[in-house]
Every structure is written in C-alpha cells, then in structure tokens.
From TrEMBL:
This is Transporter. Residues 359-386 form a coiled coil. It comes from the Bacteria. One of its GO terms (molecular function) is efflux transmembrane transporter activity. The keyword Coiled coil applies.
Length: 432
C-alpha cells in the first residue's frame, strides 16, 4: 500500500471512528470464519458429502452376509385334511384351523461378475465428487464474503469522501458569502458555491444509503441480522492472506491441478463409468451362498423345523435389451460429463487470465491515481490561496474541489479493484 493511500485511509478511519459507535473491528479473516460457519450453501454441500459417504458404506456392505427374517399367521375357515379316496381321510394337517410359520435366511454373495466391486468404485467416486464440491463451495463462500466486505469498505470510503467534500464546500460557500457581503466578489460566486454544495449533499445522502445497503448485504451473506452494525478493518492487506500470484503461466498450470471443480467433475465421470460396469455385470452369472431355517406349525410332519444350506446361481442372458440400454444410457451420461470437463478447463484458464489482467490493470491505475491525488491536493491548495488573495476565481476553486473528489474516488476504486482482482485470481487458480 502506498504512502498516499495509507495516509488517506488513516484519515478516513478517524472520520468513521468519530461518527460510528465503538465496537470490535472485524477483519477479512473474521468474515471468512463467520461465513464458513453460517452459510447455507456450504452446509448443503457438506450434507451431500455426508450422504455420498453413507452411500459408499452401503455399497461396501453389499459384500457382507445378509439376514432376512419373516413370519406369518394364517386363519383358515376349516382345518385342512388329505383325502385318499372315499374310505380314508387324513387327520388334520394342522392342529386346528390356523397355523404359524417363521423363516430366517442368511445369504452371502460369492461371485457377482464384478457388480459389487464396481458398485463400490462408483460410490467412492461419488464421494470424491461430493468432497470436491464442498471445497469449491467453500472457496466461493470465501470469495463472496470478501466481495461484500470490500463493498462495505468501498462505500464507507465513498461516504467519507462525500462528507469531506461537503465540509470543504461549506467552508468555501461561507467564504464566498462573506466576501459577497462586503462587496469583494459578485453574488454569482456565492450562488454557484451554494448550488455545488447542494449537489454534494445529495451525493452524501446517496452514499449513506449505499453504505447501509452494503452493510445489510454483507450481514445477510454472513447469516446475521441485516441491521447489525459492522465495523470492518479498513487496512485491507490482501497480499498477506493469499499465496504468490506473480506468474501467469504458473497460475494457469496450478489452476488445472488444484481447482476443486475439475476434480469433482472428473470424479463424477469416473462414478458413471463404474456404475455402467456394475449394471453390465448384473446381467452376468451371480453365485450366492444361502442358509435357511424354517419352522412350520403342523400336526402331520414329524419335525416342524427345517435347516438348509445351498448355492444359488442366477443368470440373465436375455432381457430384451433392458440392461444393455441402461448401460448405454449411463455411458452417454459419462461422455457428457467429460465434455463439460473439457469445456470447464478452457473456462478456468480464461478466468485466470481475466483476473490476472484485471490485477495488472488495477496496479497500473493505482500508480496513476497516486500521482493524481498529489496533483489534485496541490491544485486545490493553490486555487483556494489564489481565491482568498483575490487573484483567483470561484470557478477555479469549485473545479479544483471537484477534481480532488474525483482523484480520491479514483484511488479508492483502483485499490479496491486491485484487492478484488487478487482475490478472484486466487479463487480462479484454486488457491483461495
């Protein structure tokens, strides 16, 4: 931060401190912590990540034994019997006109043609995609908090400039009125100064409104009551919060390696490929170990409890294309995701380049604006001295004051734009 801008920030801080209630100053790091704690989009992404991990646990459980238990009670209109001709009818099959049955079966997949393992791969890739999405949302939340934080500072500075401009014009208008009253200048000097003062007061009112709106938007983003009074640290040192952002070629490479969105989309493509393989495997031979226990309440059988262990094989060689079409559909979805991944890579490179150029432009604007502030200060001082000495005109003073206001707004804008460009560059390169 340059000496001129640092001096201006100090003056602005003092003015705001005198006109605002005393409270703890909130830094950008504090804002990030508050936003990451309360933002609903991040909470939603984290919930989706947890859901994906539960899905992975479910897919892994497909390898484990499964126990199914069932039971039933049946009431008949009459007790059934066996008939062996006209002369012989068996006793009641059940002890009465009702019976109960219980069944327990344990099954364990022995061979699934890769359906279970590929299902696990798909669930794991889905979990990776959800984790990447959480990282991307977290970076977006940090950038959003920084944008609103800087918007508050920008509007605070604009209000400070507007108030300083009003104060200067009030002083000059009073001078013009006094000189008019003693006949030193024409009444036009007083009228022109009064009109410009009124216009400056309107800009001050607009600046107050814009600041209140910026503060409400900032509080809304951080999940706080929108009317909460905020006191932000005006000495914004973005460079200390961000990694080195000096080489464009390196940043382009870093972005393609570290952007969470790329990892997330790539993982989704992998998940779809694994899901397609799992679907295809389900139409191939499946082998399962089965153990079964059945109890049937009966009066005919000598033993009403039965145990069974066996192997079950299933295979679906023909299903009229149901499975093959599902597999083809999933593979086309994977191709679509891969196309989006290629397109995203190009967009990310453009995003990095754009933020880089914006940062370079802002830095150059800062240098020009610093010189302009020094020149505007000197120009205003000379114009006021000349007017007081009777050698200058009212128009010169008003013009010099307008140039001073513009110069201060320009250096504020250049510095805030530079900070935002660096933050966007860090986000674009995956380092925020």
């Amino acid at each position: 931060m340059t000496e001129v801008f640092a001096r201006w920030l100090l003056c602005a801080t003092l003015i705001l401190a005198l006109t605002s209630p005393a409270q703890a100053t909130e830094t950008l790091s504090d804002a990030w912590t508050a936003a990451l704690t309360s933002h609903q989009q991040l909470a939603a992404a984290e919930a989706e990540r947890e859901a994906a991990h539960f899905g992975l646990a479910s897919a892994r459980a497909e390898r484990m034994p499964r126990l199914d238990v069932s039971g039933g009670y049946t009431q008949l209109d009459s007790a059934p019997r066996f008939s062996f001709g006209d002369n012989f009818v068996s006793p009641r099959i059940f002890s009465g006109d009702n019976f109960s049955m219980a069944n327990a079966q344990v099954s364990l997949p022995l061979y699934t043609s890769g359906a279970v393992s590929r299902g696990i791969d798909a669930a794991r890739s889905q979990a990776d995609a959800a984790s990447g999405q959480v990282d991307a949302v977290r970076a977006d939340v940090k950038l959003g908090a920084a944008v609103h934080y800087i918007a508050v500072l920008r509007n605070e500075r604009a209000l400070t400039v507007a108030r300083a401009n009003v104060a200067m014009l009030e002083s000059h208008t009073a001078d013009a009125e006094n000189r008019f009253n003693i006949g030193d200048v024409a009444r036009n000097d007083y009228l022109a100064a009064s009109v410009q003062l009124a216009d400056a007061r309107q800009r001050e009112l607009r600046a107050e409104n814009q600041l209140e709106l910026a503060q409400a938007t900032y509080n809304r983003f951080l999940g706080r009551p929108q009317g909460t009074t905020v006191a932000l640290d005006p000495l914004l040192n973005v460079t200390a919060l961000l990694p080195s952002l000096n080489n464009l070629d390196q940043l382009l490479g870093i972005a393609l390696e570290q952007r969470a969105e790329i990892d997330s989309i790539a993982a989704r493509a992998d998940a779809l490929q694994a899901q397609a393989a799992a679907e295809r495997a389900r139409s191939r031979p499946q082998l399962m170990l089965i153990s079964n226990y059945t109890r049937l309440e009966t009066a005919v059988l000598a033993d009403d409890e039965f145990w069974m262990v066996g192997l079950a094989v299933s295979w679906n060689p023909f299903d009229a294309g149901r499975n093959s079409n599902r597999v083809a559909a999933i593979r086309r979805q994977a191709q679509a995701v891969n196309h989006r991944l290629s397109d995203m890579s190009a967009d990310i490179q453009l995003e990095v380049r754009s933020a880089w150029l914006d940062a370079q432009e802002a830095e150059q604007r800062i240098q020009v604006a610093e010189a302009a502030v020094i020149q505007a200060e000197e120009n205003l001082r000379v114009a006021r001295d000349r007017y007081k000495a009777g050698a200058g005109t009212n128009t010169e003073v008003l013009g010099a004051q307008a140039l001073m206001e513009q110069a201060l707004n320009n250096i504020d804008g250049a510095n805030f734009d530079a900070a935002l460009a660096k933050l966007r560059l860090a986000r674009a390169s995956g380092q925020l």
